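Design job #97: recover the sequence.
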């Protein structure tokens, strides 16, 4: 089924689901969907979920959680977006293991994401980059590339763990610098086992309301 053939309620439900997964890392509850859709009964919202699953717009992962497998079309501006995979959370502080499972496909405006490049989204954790406007819960739009310029905010892979920092190369070492009001965060100095996964090209604030 084409996305344009979904009902207004189904499109609204998909939007709420997509935003909740993106910003809260979880599905909205049936009662939250009930409120968003203006229903009086949770059963009505549950029926919308069942309908979206039957039509192939949602599926359940092996652990029972929902995954969005198709995006929404809200209006003509939808054609000016590209779907970007949200691949989990990254801590802006101590490096954490990078998550490779796709949680959702998020439509992003082509004004932010050039169609000639590849992108992914990560959810920020921690406060080590708050001076650069990156706060807990923000979505980071990452342009995939293996190189960066001095001063770029990069996703760095260190021994299979990923972190977001400012990239500052020198002759013999690489410095990954925090930019934070919290003095607890210290620069990471490297001379090997370092890989750039991408450069932060945009910060998308958490604007979800359910």
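Job complete. Output follows.
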């Amino acid at each position: 089924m084409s996305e344009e053939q979904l009902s207004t309620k189904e499109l609204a439900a998909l939007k709420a689901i997509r935003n909740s997964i993106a910003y809260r890392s979880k599905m909205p509850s049936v009662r939250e969907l009930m409120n968003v859709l203006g229903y009086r009964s949770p059963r009505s919202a549950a029926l919308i979920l069942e309908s979206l699953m039957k039509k192939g717009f949602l599926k359940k992962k092996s652990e029972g959680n929902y995954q969005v497998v198709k995006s929404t079309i809200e209006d003509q501006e939808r054609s000016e977006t590209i779907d970007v995979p949200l691949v989990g959370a990254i801590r802006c502080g101590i490096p954490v293991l990078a998550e490779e499972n796709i949680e959702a496909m998020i439509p992003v405006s082509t004004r932010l994401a050039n169609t000639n490049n590849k992108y992914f989204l990560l959810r920020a954790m921690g406060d080590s980059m708050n001076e650069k406007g990156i706060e807990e819960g923000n979505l980071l739009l990452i342009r995939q590339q293996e190189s960066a310029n001095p001063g770029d905010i990069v996703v760095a892979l260190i021994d299979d763990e990923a972190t977001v920092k400012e990239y500052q190369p020198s002759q013999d070492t690489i410095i990954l610098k925090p930019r934070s009001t919290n003095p607890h965060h210290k620069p990471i100095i490297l001379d090997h086992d370092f890989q750039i996964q991408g450069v932060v090209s945009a910060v998308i604030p958490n604007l979800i309301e359910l």
